[in-house]
Input
Amino acid sequence: MKRRHFVQAGAAGAALLLAGEFFRARAYDDVHISKGKINTLVHRDKPSLLEKKHVPLVEAPKAVKPGQWFKVNVKVGYMVEHPSKPAHWIDRIELQLDGKRVSEIINIAGGVTSPNACFTIRLDKPGDVKIEAIADCNLHGTWLGEPVYIKVS
Ligand SMILES: [Fe+2]
Output
């Protein structure tokens, strides 16, 4: 390979890498802004199949000590596990503390990752903290789970 061809190939490769980053970042932003409506569990007595498959369930200890790491599991959905297929999957799971987003996972491809997430967090201030999860389905929108309260003392 001549030096000029080598340089051209290198520049083309760098351009492709940059384009890949651009499209990945763009897809990430689209996940955030494209699902405006937030769905919740409306039919508590008789949940619909969509609710069963999409409302995230938060599992956390009832009480922790300040500064102690602990696990928060999020399962989507809370009665029927959401499918994970190449064309239909949970592409984002977000964790909120007292209504503020503190962490999230992004599932870029369907059919590979489970519809669950595990966060390891700690809380420093004594008191009651509300924990909530939000799940995004690539086909069925954004879903907010029921809040769970944890005592820090
Ligand atoms: Fe779905």
